[in-house]
Amino acid sequence: MSLFLLLSLRQNEAVAALEYRDFLRATGLRPERLEQRVLGSPGAAVGPLDRYAGVFVGGSSLNMTESDPGAWQRHVVRELTALIDGPVPVFFTCFGTGLIARAIGGSLGHDHAERAGQTRVEITPDGRRDPIFGGLPASFPALTGHTECVLSLPARAAVLASGPSCPVQALRVGGHTWATQFHPEMDPPAMARRMDFYRHHGYFDEEEYDSIVDSLRAVDTGHAHRVLGCFVDYCLRRREHSPDYTGKVCMPS
Questions:
Q1: Which has the closest alpha carbon to 146: 187, 104, 180?
Q2: What share of the chain has pLDDT > 70, as a percent?
Q3: Which residues make Cβ contacts (< 8 Å) with residue 128, sequence separation at least 6?
Q4: Which residue did the predictor score with more confidence, 63 or 227?
Q5: Does this model's pTM top 0.85?
Q6: Which of 60, 65, 153, 251 would suit a FRET pair with 71, their CA atoms being 20 to 30 Å apart?
Q7: Strand 149-152 relative to strand 157-162: parallel, antiparallel, unpaired?
Q8: With contact defined as beta carbons under 8 Å apart, do 27 and 5 qualify?
Q9: Of 163, 154, 58, 64, the residue nearest 109 (C-alpha)
Q10: With 90 as the cut, is the pLDDT of residue 248 above it?
């Protein structure tokens, strides 16, 4: 039985538990196949990954544009940067796009920050050739909320998805490191629950809370969830074939 790992960058146990539940639902994995490690302190390490077919990295309240990051953030960045060119496929969400961009020489800013709510994801030509994104619709809705964004990337990174409000919605580095700026693990109830915990972090104005939650009800996150399902499929095929497996395009189920 192939196992997967979720790394949660959370200091709040309740948020980490919600995130684990969101990833279980979106990936379709059963609890016995998805383990969780919470990197909630400078002493919490990623640890050995030999047992896992693939690794998910959840979002975080941390910001890569922070001018004076604390010990916890510096530790998280060191631990996660080591995964980028590692032997195990990794899928980062939200915070991870900025971490990867900074690690490989890209630049970050706030020009295309998105308030909590719905966004539009549009697959690029590179995305059409990608084993995870290639079988998805040309455009689909997803849920998001971030205060910083990727402004530029070096040639070694491929932009797999863009959008009208954020030009880098998904990227890949090398053969098996992916990241999305949007949250593929969230559905509308999950985002409402997450918003309850982050009311004063700059993701939305307090007076907009009710209207945002109401607007989420009509958002279909099925294709966004399928991104994670395709990552699972890719990792399983790679483990079955060889570490050099590059993958075929994942088609929607």
A1: 180
A2: 96
A3: 134
A4: 227
A5: yes
A6: 153
A7: unpaired
A8: no
A9: 64
A10: no
